[in-house]
Amino acid sequence: MEDIIVLTLHRAMVAGTPLLLATTGEVICERSGILNLGVEGVMAMGAVVAFIVTMTTGQPWLGVLAATATGIAFSSIHAFASVTLQANQVVSGLALTMLGLGLSGMLGKPYVGKPLSIKMEDWSIPWLSDIPWLGKILFTQGPFFYLAIVLAFAAWFFLERTRLGIQIRSTGENPKAAETQGVNVFRLRYLSVLIGGGFSALAGAHLSISYSKSWIEGMTAGRGWIAIALTIFALWNPGRAIWAAFLFGGFFVVQYLLQPLGISPSFLAMLPYIATLFILLLISLKDPRKLNAPAMLAEPYKRGER
Amino acid sequence: MIKIKTTDRYNITTLRSFMTNILSLLAALVVISTIFLIAGVNPIYAITEIFSGSFGSFYGFKETITKAIPLILIATGLTLAFRANFWNIGAEGQMLMGAIFATWTGLTFGEALPSYIIIPLIFLSGFIGGALWGIIPAILKIKYAINEVISTLMLNYICAEFLTLLIVGPWKGKTRFGFPGTDNLPDSAILGLIPGSRIHYATLILALICAIVLCVVIYKTRFGYEARVVGENPDAGKYAGINFLKTGLILMAISGGLAGFAGVGEVAGIHHYLGYPASISSGYGFTAIIVAWLAKLNPLYTVVSGIFFAGILVGGDAIQISLGLPAATVEIVNGTLLIFLIMGDYFLNHKITLQFSNK
């Protein structure tokens, strides 16, 4: 029994890792006032590029790097449309998702079903991994897990404690005031969208080269959309995103755990989505003000408008 | 030094709007061609193949019209929702819920009733199914401030899994020999086709009527006016005493209900039974978003843009077979078109002039 619980929680952490990466990125992006619904597409692009580069060079970290660069470049489309051209962010994000799912399908077609022989070894943290239960769950994970946690903390520190982070938040709350304080709203919004894109692509890289070690079309399976929901669930705070992401990782794992008990797999597959709605509802019932998004989220900013 | 100066454009003519769309589509075509070129496919050949596959032959054109039916219905409903700033991304789920309700009515009452009663009944049940699935996010948004993009998307996944649960479990048909899917609908509940095609004309006529009616609703009625005010200037709406909950519920019921109609058409017109979600809808709910956008959120124009995008779907199938391209190709084409359409809006709403100065 102990083994099953430890194994389940260990897997929940693995399943939560891409959610955490993508959510952290989206939090930074939305804090600047830009809604990016392209997460799913950027994730797919990250996954396919990481897989192709890792497979051809044999270097997983090179794959990770290439994926991040792709994510940044690819999300610049959304940045250009939503910041420079002040386009509708919902539609622009959707377009990015369509394009990302399409392009990744085309790029990855020759690689479908090919297994990746290169393995990213798990890192056993000395001393800490010897702690009973917790050691196995938290300190014998793959590198992406630690990366996701470190980046989430870094993002929290960046947004809450650094000058640049505070400026980014001010562009999301009141861009006009920020601009009069000498903040370059356009530049910071671009920066935030690109950082968010890099994070989403990292999440994709985790899926293809560490989690499933293969590529198939549509392998992101809605995780990008869940990350967008988690951004709300985490109330735009990367610190809260950590436990939110791993809770949802748990929902993914519980599906496989309950299947042998004869519960319909379709019903279990609904769980993460029902849970998302249910938890958002709970937050809203408890304190609706908490759902307050950055004030200018999804509102285009026009320079020099009075 | 050259300076770029942008000023807002206020008087936008229909002609300018139309020309901007055409130019955006052409620009998108250039990018799509480049992608084809990189993928090692002759772009001129591929694009000709897409359009000759969908509009170039009688057979292709009939298929295009068949696929345009759900697109027009869904996009028409979306124009209303989008105008009220209600970002309904859940048409896919609303369509499936319509299909589920229609199948239930058809299987339960179909044997005993003649066509002229059962067919209106299945359309009505489809509308109710889609409307119910559309009302949920409206309540969540207006009463509980939950973002509708998230809720409609989650409801898509939930509905697809629910449908799968039904067809592998309680609704599995005796005539399917263990394969997932319900039994066929009784003959009286099956929609007639235009001979030699798969065009279920009842749904086609319904789609055209809906587009016209919704056009009148949006531009000529008090409700349409209120929906537009809610979208364009919610603060003014509050002062004017518009009931947000009522307006939101009605417009999402219509938007979801029309998607439900589309689900009825696919089940009763094409498949004749309820099968896997992916076979009922090949992403119509998402493609319809682009259809609505190209139509500049005018229900009447969705007829034209619906046929255009149905053509891309049909032509996309054609080049998958003839050029060995993956199914994702259509998504590349659609995504690129949508990006250029929204970029084009900027040039429609702004006047851009280059200023030359010596400084």
Structural class of chain B: mainly alpha
Task: Fill in the CATH topology of chain A.
Answer: ABC transporter involved in vitamin B12 uptake, BtuC
Number of strands of chain A: 2
Query: How much is the average pLDDT of chain B?
Result: 91
What's the number of extended β-strand segments of chain B? 2
Spans where pLDDT lies below 50 across 5 or more residues of chain A: none
Shape descriptor of chain B: globular
Number of alpha- plus pi-helical segments of chain B: 14
Main sheet characteristics of chain A: 2 strands, antiparallel
The end-to-end span of chain B amounts to 6 Å
What string, H for helix and E for strand, traces the elements of chain A in order? HHHHEHEHHHHHHH
Write the H/E string of chain B, N to C. Answer: EHHHHHHHHHHHHHHE
The CATH architecture classification of chain A is Orthogonal Bundle
Question: What can you tell me about this protein's structure?
Answer:
The complex is a heterodimer of chains A (306) and B (359). Chain A is built from 12 helices and 2 strands; from the N terminus they run H-H-H-H-E-H-E-H-H-H-H-H-H-H. The mean pLDDT of chain A is 89. Chain A has one domain: Orthogonal Bundle (ABC transporter involved in vitamin B12 uptake, BtuC), CATH 1.10.3470. Chain A has 306 residues and is mainly alpha-helical. Chain A has a two-stranded antiparallel ribbon with strand order 1-2. Chain B is mainly α and 359 residues long. Chain B has a domain of 225 residues. Chain B is built from 14 helices and 2 strands, in the order βααααααααααααααβ. Chain B has a two-stranded antiparallel ribbon with strand order 1-2. In chain B, helix 5 packs antiparallel against helix 10 and helix 12 packs across helix 13. The longest helix of chain B is centred in the middle third of the chain and has 30 residues. Chains A and B meet through helix 4, helix 10 and helix 12 of A and helix 6, helix 12 and helix 14 of B.
